[in-house]
């Protein structure tokens, strides 16, 4: 029996998941394979291993339902996991809804977002395989800080290409990465062939995740084996690591007396946050135990799921990554420099794209001003400033909740609150001063 | 039986304290009374009531051991309380100590520090008494954000005078206050007589908490009864509210199998964080059940406990506040603009001063560079960026822990981690670039 009067469900460390969940074996249709960009043949572990740690490549292609979380990774997870599932009672009252609003809050992690769930295992496996340095890209800076922290923990160097729009607009994130000992470059940079090519063409570009990926991959590939590359979203192994979020939610909802989540809203940039939250709950639905709806919320400025095509495309601008079957706006798409830097990606995780394509997950887009309006409403009621990315999920959830006023309409709505927005305050400041472009 | 292998002790909401603890009746010697600045007679509730909510004035003079926390306050506390007590295992390994290091982490609160523990009840009591606006001062911006949030919760306006050094150096905190709907002024300002007097004398002043207090008190006193004033530290009722910290620690230490804290280190600016953490543990010591040592750690740039005099002084520059018996550097003392803005106060909570004076609590000072060095060591091991204020406590605890290497030296050391430092990243940045003044 749960306690409907609870505000937040905290799990003891002993109930932290000990395995990640891989949705692949449970999908009604198998997801299309990644392809070799040269041969267009299905990619293999050996094809990816020069760039990524071998264990991560194994996970990328795994059809095993559950994969053990290494003890050393769980030890670091325990600094902040399990994360809280909170009932937003004050927000419910503020908008007068009969819905029960919950948020799964990943902002208690060391760097303030869900990204640490994957950076820690990625650094761990690389360190175990003797890699001395990890290269990566970062949009909002969330993934870069997460990897910088994880590299520090496992004694590796960390080199980050940060999308120029964020590098310039979010200096605090750069400082956070540097405090954890990382080296940070503005992307596109003069340090790589990929970066120089973009700059030659468009010196004033605001950058994009796709460009930064090219630079980081190139740096790893040309390091003579010293460095490998780490990706913060999109790929199957990242989605796998994020499944701890949803596994915890399944243990926490009953603490409130809820039998299921009726609707789940999560923001979708590369897709790992939403997939991590949703896939364990989707497993329950596919097994016929629940009838949860899942909604991916993307920014109107970068609408890959709602306006992109479902096709094979590269994950980066230079075409260094494998071909991934996904919803994409095209690898050369440069989104407006919206404040939700973590959502400025042309593609979408293949596994999430597949579930959207097969009708298991819905998708919608939200404008930037609507997102910040919802974020401020949330902050003033709950006292917690959400990341601009998370604001998109909040906006969609609030729009839904406002339509529910009678007891019969009541529903358990779960919002993926991927992180806090304290380092994004200039964006809130600009919004409050009326200065945001609404795309 | 506790679990020595635990990383963090999380209490369920049902074990959140329902009462605040007032140390006054348990002190071996009664603390000296506050005095009326005019008559130098002991102050009464009626003397303070024009400025503060009556209920808070009652608490200021209370000799009752326990005071019930109102249900409406507990409901807001439940957003983040109980806060975690975490064992810093990675830090222990990093420095090779036999000590067991714990940190009580208040950074999970909505605004990222312990200040919300008092802002919420202060706003609640004022709202209950029909007050429409609260005025206050803020140093680092922690208290200002906490009060801005609490005023929003209880439907009141909030007007904040932020010390100029912080207003200019920490724009993110101003933005956070504004996001919660508060009005923020740089102090000293032209809006008050007190501010104009200071500016006339020293237009380039970096400001001080004592000046900002004068401005906020004056604004309340001249508001025609619309506004009252709220103080974020120093006074007995603030120390009272913060006792939830220590009460929780007493419930959490046994979860690790610890019978007591052997040493407690907390930073001391106005004193409420350290007193809130320590006084419930001091009660246990005074009752003969433990032999915990308590250490107040202050910045070398503002050493009220270690170099000030124990005497009656005003809490503000203009002399508007009551005379408080405390360790003080003199109300006109303007500390260097160190980054730990929350510690730049000339005085110290009378109750904490009394316990230092009577030998119950020890005091020491730490330099700014030593504090940041320790903070970065902590961040890289635990993944959590501490507030510059908290870095002082960490520095003292690490110096202690480094002397303990044998099993016989082992001890349970509890650090008061009053908040996170994500909004203080420019200070870390300056330190890493070698640019801090070491005072």
Can you walk me through this structure?
Two copies of one chain form a homodimer. The longest helix of chain A is centred in the middle third of the chain and has 17 residues, at 236-252. Chain A is globular. A seven-stranded mixed sheet of chain A has the order 1-4-5-15-10-11-14, with helices on both faces. In chain A, strands 8-7-6-9 form a four-stranded parallel sheet, sandwiched between helices. Chain A is an alpha/beta fold. Chain A has helices at residues 45-48, 54-61, 71-77, 89-95, 116-128, 142-153, 164-169, 171-179, 193-201, 209-221, 236-252, 272-286, 304-307, 350-357, 368-382, 388-402, 425-432; strands spanning 8-9, 19-21, 66-68, 85-87, 100-105, 133-138, 157-163, 183-187, 227-229, 263-267, 293-299, 309-314, 323-328, 362-366, 412-417. In chain A, helix 4 crosses helix 15 (368-382). The A-B interface holds A 6-8, 10, 12-13, 75-76, 78-79, 86, 89-90, 108-112, 116, 149, 152-153, 171-172, 175-176, 178-181, 376, 379-380, 382-385, 422-423, 425-426, 428-429, 432 and B 6-8, 10, 12-13, 75-76, 78-79, 86, 89-90, 108-112, 116, 149, 152-153, 171-172, 175-176, 178-181, 376, 379-380, 382-385, 422-423, 425-426, 428-429, 432.
């Amino acid at each position: 029996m749960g306690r409907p009067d609870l505000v937040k469900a905290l799990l003891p460390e002993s109930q932290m998941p000990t395995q990640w969940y891989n949705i692949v074996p449970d999908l009604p249709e198998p997801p299309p394979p990644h392809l070799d960009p040269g041969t267009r043949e299905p990619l293999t572990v050996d094809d990816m291993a020069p760039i990524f740690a071998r264990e991560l490549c194994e996970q990328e292609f795994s059809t095993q339902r559950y994969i053990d979380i290494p003890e050393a990774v769980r030890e670091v997870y325990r600094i902040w996991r399990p994360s809280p599932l909170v009932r937003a009672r004050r927000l419910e009252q503020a908008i007068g809804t009969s819905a029960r609003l919950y948020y799964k809050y990943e902002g208690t992690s060391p760097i303030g977002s869900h990204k640490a769930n994957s950076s820690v295992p990625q650094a761990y496996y690389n360190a175990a395989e003797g890699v001395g340095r990890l290269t990566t890209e970062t949009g909002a800076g969330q993934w870069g800080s997460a990897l910088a922290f994880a590299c520090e923990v496992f004694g590796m160097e960390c080199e980050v290409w940060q999308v120029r729009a964020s590098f310039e607009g979010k200096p605090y994130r750069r400082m956070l990465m540097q405090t954890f000992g990382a080296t940070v470059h503005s992307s596109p940079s003069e340090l790589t062939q990929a970066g120089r090519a973009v700059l030659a063409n468009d010196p004033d570009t605001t950058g994009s995740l796709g460009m930064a990926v090219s630079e980081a991959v190139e740096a790893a590939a040309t390091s003579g084996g010293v460095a490998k590359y780490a990706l913060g979203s999109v790929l199957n192994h990242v989605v796998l690591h994020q499944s701890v979020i949803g596994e915890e939610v399944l243990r926490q909802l009953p603490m409130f007396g809820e039998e299921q989540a009726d609707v789940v809203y999560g923001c979708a940039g590369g897709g790992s946050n939403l997939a991590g939250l949703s896939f364990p709950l989707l497993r329950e639905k596919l097994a016929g135990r629940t009838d949860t709806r899942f909604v991916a919320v993307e920014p109107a400025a970068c609408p890959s799921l709602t306006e992109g095509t479902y096709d094979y495309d590269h994950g980066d601008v230079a075409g260094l990554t494998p071909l991934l079957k996904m919803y994409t706006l095209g690898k050369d798409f440069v989104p407006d420099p919206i404040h939700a830097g973590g959502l400025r990606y042309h593609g979408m995780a293949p596994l999430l794209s597949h579930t959207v394509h097969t009708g298991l997950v819905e998708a919608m887009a939200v404008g930037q001003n609507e997102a910040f309006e919802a974020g401020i409403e949330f902050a003033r009621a709950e006292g917690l400033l959400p990341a601009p990315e998370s604001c998109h999920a909040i906006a969609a959830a609030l729009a839904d909740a406002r339509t529910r006023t009678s007891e019969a309409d009541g529903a358990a709505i779960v919002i993926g609150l991927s992180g806090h927005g304290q380092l994004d305050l200039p964006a809130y400041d600009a919004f409050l001063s009326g200065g945001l472009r609404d795309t």
